[in-house]
């Protein structure tokens, strides 16, 4: 048994017991075991993370999917690896993940921990462990009542980064906020060398349009989406850093998957959307930094399964359902772009909640370009959630056909109406707690096998 004090032993044991009870009796509560552990031993994370090679994944969008991709690649490479796959990315949830996997009787040898972490919690994690790699996927406006603007989010992340100058940073080079950081860490950048659309102008509602040094508007050699792309400031000369890993060609992009060239390697990605190309590119970059061969990365990325509401595919009787988590304008617009790739008719369910985990302020839906789907072949427009009337008004103003609107808050009645839809393909676009709650209902009815 490892030499640890009685307080730490008690902390770990009670956390393990709480995790077991939470999973098998309460069907949830992935943060609570960590809260119990921290009540007893405030520095327990330092003890339970000892020996792990930690990869921290943070940023606004794509954390859960990118974490899952990295985890699966490392598993494919026969590494010993753990992860917080339930998306419990706050400090207590991360503590719970490590305590759950802690063994009193053997030491960790070459074991990796791929950990998703909330942007505001990086500083708490960095107090107790030094990651091998920290990656930042992007920075978009998200839960303004909690984070404020994107510059505030960057400051929160850097408060953690400066505590671990030895950690390598793997950053999205197309994110202008992540260039020329005042840190001592070694930095590797990834990004796109080709546009997704032939357009070098950014949307009026893009998030970081002005130079972070001189406040002049950026110009772009190419734009991928929102404010991401090959940017430069015509006034002060600040520009995108050189890329170590880049998408050099897009062979195919469909509602189900994509095929791209990363550096000199053709990669098939079994999940759709430009944002999943970014996620796969990030996973590719980190895996290469850890010494994984291209062939292993390719084999894993072409067989990735969607995780926990992130383009998760399920069946409700004869309906093919795809659940897409949407939580801010940038991510929502990318989800709508995925819908727009469809050539055939489909239906869509829009679920909007305003609980704490969603953000109390739902005015952000007016920054989503719903107008772009007003001409698509959408047969039924289902609307649900605590703020379904706000969503219905937004969709009406966007030009969707109100005669096709079906508003229903009750999950049982909603599911029956989905079963009776004229469409075989149905997308569910849901904010976080709406996704969580509806998944719980679908799990109780047997439509989803694995709740967490």
Q: Helical stretch count?
A: 14
Going across the biggest sheet, name each strand in turn: 2-3-1-4-5-6-9-10-11
In CATH, the homologous superfamily of the largest domain goes by the name Mur-like, catalytic domain
- Which CATH class of the largest domain is shown? Alpha Beta
Total of domains: 2
Q: In terms of per-residue confidence, which ranges show pLDDT below 50 for 5 or more consecutive residues? A: none
What percentage of residues falls in helices of 4 or more residues?
25-40%
Describe this protein's structure.
This protein folds into two domains: 6-301, Mur-like, catalytic domain (UDP-N-acetylmuramoyl-L-alanine:D-glutamate ligase), CATH 3.40.1190.10; 310-444, Protein-Tyrosine Phosphatase, Chain A, CATH 3.90.190.20. It is built from 14 helices and 17 strands. The protein has helices at residues 6-24, 32-40, 44-48, 63-76, 91-101, 122-125, 144-147, 150-161, 274-289, 294-301, 329-340, 388-397, 411-419, 432-444; strands at 52-58, 80-83, 111-116, 133-136, 168-172, 187-192, 219-223, 229-232, 245-253, 258-262, 265-269, 310-316, 319-325, 346-351, 378-384, 405-407, 425-430. The strands form three sheets. A nine-stranded mixed sheet has the order 2-3-1-4-5-6-9-10-11, with helices on both faces. A six-stranded mixed sheet has the order 12-13-17-14-15-16, sandwiched between helices. It has a two-stranded antiparallel sheet with strand order 7-8. A hairpin with a 2-residue loop joins strand 12 (310-316) and strand 13. The two termini are 31 Å apart. 47% of the residues are buried.
């Amino acid at each position: 048994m490892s030499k640890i004090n009685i307080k730490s032993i008690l902390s770990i044991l009670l956390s393990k017991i709480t995790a077991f009870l939470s999973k098998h009796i309460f069907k949830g509560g992935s943060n609570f075991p960590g809260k119990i552990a921290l009540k007893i031993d405030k520095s327990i994370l330092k003890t339970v993370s000892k020996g792990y090679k930690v990869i921290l994944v943070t940023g606004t969008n794509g954390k859960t999917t990118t974490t899952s991709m990295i985890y699966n690649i490392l598993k494919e490479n026969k590494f010993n690896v753990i992860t917080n796959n339930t998306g419990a990315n706050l400090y207590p949830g991360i503590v719970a993940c490590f305590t759950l996997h802690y063994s009193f009787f053997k030491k960790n040898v070459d074991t990796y921990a791929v950990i998703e972490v909330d942007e505001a919690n990086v500083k708490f994690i960095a107090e107790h462990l030094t990651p091998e790699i920290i990656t930042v996927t992007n920075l978009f406006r998200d839960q303004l009542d909690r984070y404020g603007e994107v510059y505030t989010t960057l400051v929160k992340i850097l408060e953690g980064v400066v505590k671990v100058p030895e950690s390598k940073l793997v950053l999205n080079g197309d994110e202008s906020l992540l260039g020329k950081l005042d840190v001592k860490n070694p930095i590797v950048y990834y990004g796109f060398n080709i546009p997704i659309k032939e357009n070098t102008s950014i949307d009026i509602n893009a998030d970081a349009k002005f130079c972070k040094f001189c406040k002049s508007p950026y110009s772009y050699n190419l734009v991928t989406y929102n404010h991401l792309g090959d940017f430069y400031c015509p006034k002060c000369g600040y520009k995108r850093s050189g890329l170590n890993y880049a998408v050099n060609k897009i062979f195919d992009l469909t509602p189900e998957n994509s095929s791209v060239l990363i550096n000199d390697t053709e990669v098939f990605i079994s999940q759709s959307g430009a944002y999943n190309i970014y996620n796969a590119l990030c996973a590719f970059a980190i895996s290469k930094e850890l010494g994984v061969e291209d062939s292993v990365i390719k084999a894993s990325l072409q067989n990735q399964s969607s995780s926990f509401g992130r383009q998760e595919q399920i069946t409700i009787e004869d309906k093919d359902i795809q659940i897409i988590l949407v939580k801010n304008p940038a991510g929502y617009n990318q989800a709508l772009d995925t819908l727009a790739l469809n050539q055939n008719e489909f239906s869509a369910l829009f679920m909007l909640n305003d609980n704490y985990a969603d953000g109390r302020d739902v005015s952000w839906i007016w920054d989503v370009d719903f107008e772009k789907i007003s001409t698509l072949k959408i047969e039924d427009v289902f609307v649900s959630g605590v703020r379904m009337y706000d969503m219905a008004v937004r969709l009406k103003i966007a030009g969707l056909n109100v005669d096709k609107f079906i508003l229903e808050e009750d999950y049982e009645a909603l599911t029956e109406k989905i079963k009776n839809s004229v469409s075989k393909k149905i997308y569910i676009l849901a904010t976080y707690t709406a996704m969580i709650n509806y998944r719980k209902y679908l799990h109780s009815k047997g439509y989803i096998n694995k709740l967490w």
